[in-house]
Write a structure and sequence with these properties.
The protein is mainly α. It has a domain of 212 residues. 74% of the residues lie in helices and 1% in strands. The chain has 24 helices and two strands. Strands 1-2 form a two-stranded antiparallel sheet.
Length: 485
């Protein structure tokens, strides 16, 4: 008769994670910003292999370990489907002019007197529209840094405003990969997660905007905004910019408020984006289709290509061209690959009881809800510092504490909110983290230079811990589907 498998020791449970951290650190050293494009996925698989070997030595069968991996991947299938739809939606919203219109009107917010708060707000709008803090920094962020320098404002302060806005938008946008990853790890759905984040994210961004507003009134400048005018001119030269385009996002927002599930809501937004592209931007659709004549077939081809393959619109302005691009469904494959590998790693550790062992070792000191959420937040930040990757800072703590939150009667959106409030936003504050290294390189401002001024990123983890200790908006499982909104 086969013996019952034994439980892992703390060292055995920690060994695959330490091995993973070592590999991720090596990857950042060798591959730099490209670490998430394959090398980190392989690191997760190698660490999962080590975990499987240790699990076998503890008496777990291969079929049990494989079942753990399959169940883990299955739990992320909803997020994977949503990511695919988001890739397609981003494409149709680009060629329809929705994203360019959001950027165009967002740039109108810039005013010399309130430059810092406007820079933060514009970065928020662009990041909400694109779902990417990286794209925001690499496009409009560069322009804003240049304008700030011309105005004589400290580059660290300007970069802090850009980073704050970019990560607010990244955190709240349904098109963001981390915004999809966090609820998948915690066991809740996308729009419940976004709605629940409003409670902590709203005060955080409000405080941030107030700080930059007050700070901005101390800045004196007579600089012009030729760069902004150039960007807007490039957009209007290629797109028909009209407020009618905002009907599509309003429809999607309305569906979200009606609590329609994410997949049908996003699918509707994707289709409407394609229809609006043909109506308002027929020339752009033909450009994507590489066709010189209009017909049903060429319009159909152009809309479909925007959904499944990378799309870029040429305006003659390199800055705007970088902003007006979409990767489509194809561009989501790398993130999906990363999620699958992360779920394999988490599934092995969960099947062998390793994550539960680590969680139990940590939470024995976290007796209250406040201390549990504070511990989770600290774990996310620790992984951002040690693993140098924001995805790992969401995946591993998410798998570690998921069972504990449920056992204590806490709804999974408490966990997903904590993961984003602490994991997503603090990644840009660590110089050797992939996010910190990227933002510093792109903006041309050192991570430690903008660190003190990235107020949103600094306030967010504090806010989530304060809410936890105060018992504000901590949803219990017994409330079922009741909403706090």
């Amino acid at each position: 008769m086969r013996k019952e498998p034994r439980q892992p020791t703390v060292f055995e449970a920690l060994l695959p994670i330490l091995f993973l951290i070592s590999l991720l650190t090596l990857n950042v050293h060798i591959f730099h910003d490209d670490a998430t494009y394959g090398s980190n996925q392989m690191a997760l698989l190698f660490a999962a292999t080590l975990g499987a070997i240790l699990a076998g030595r503890m008496g777990f069968t291969w079929s049990h370990i494989l079942d753990g991996m399959v169940k883990s991947i299955s739990s992320a299938m909803s997020a994977i489907l949503i990511l695919l739809l988001i890739g397609a939606l981003a494409g149709t919203w680009l060629i329809s002019g929705i994203v360019p219109a959001l950027i165009y009107y967002g740039l109108d917010l810039l005013n010399p007197t309130i430059f810092l708060v406007a820079a933060c707000a514009v970065s928020s709008i662009v990041s909400l529209a694109t779902g990417s803090s990286w794209t925001t920094a690499a496009t409009i962020g560069i322009a804003l840094v240049g304008i700030g320098e011309a105005m004589g404002i400290s580059e660290g302060v300007v970069a802090g405003a850009i980073i704050s806005g970019a990560y607010f938008g990244d955190k709240m946008s349904p098109m963001s990969d981390t915004t999809n990853l966090a609820p998948a790890m915690a066991g809740t759905d996308l729009f419940t997660h976004i709605r629940y984040m409003i409670f902590t994210t709203g005060p955080s961004i409000t405080i941030t905007l107030l700080i930059f507003l007050i700070w901005g009134f101390t800045v004196e400048s007579d600089s012009n905004f030729e760069k902004i005018a150039t960007v807007q001119s490039a957009i209007t030269s290629s797109f028909s910019v009209t407020l009618w385009l905002f009907l599509v996002p309003l429809v999607v927002i309305g569906m979200i408020l009606k609590k329609i599930p994410a997949i049908p809501a996003l699918f509707t937004g994707m289709v409407l984006g394609g229809v609006f592209a043909v109506v308002f931007q027929p020339d752009i659709v033909l450009q994507v289709a590489k066709a010189d004549h209009a017909s049903f077939y060429t319009y159909y081809e152009g809309v479909l290509r925007s959904m499944f393959e990378p799309t870029s619109i040429s305006t003659g302005n390199s800055l705007v061209d970088g902003l007006l691009s979409s990767s489509g469904m194809f561009g989501m494959m790398n993130t999906i690959w990363l999620i699958i590998c992360a779920m394999i790693f988490g599934g092995v550790l969960e099947a062998a009881g390793m994550l539960q062992k680590l969680a139990n070792s940590i939470i024995q000191y976290a007796r209250s809800t406040g201390s549990l959420i504070a511990t989770t937040a600290a774990t996310c930040i620790l992984f951002n510092i040690t693993a140098s990757d924001q995805y790992i800072s969401i995946v591993v703590p998410g798998r570690m504490f998921k069972g504990t939150f449920r056992a204590r009667g806490l709804a999974p959106e408490n966990l997903s909110r904590t993961l984003e409030d602490s994991g997503t936003v603090t990644s840009a504050l660590v110089p050797w983290n992939t996010c910190g290294a990227y933002q510093s390189t792109v903006l041309g401002v050192g991570t430690l230079t903008y660190f003190p001024y990235a107020f949103f990123n600094l306030i967010s983890p504090v806010m989530t811990v304060l809410y936890a200790y105060a018992g504000i908006k901590i949803r219990k499982l017994k409330e079922g589907n009741q909403e706090d909104l």
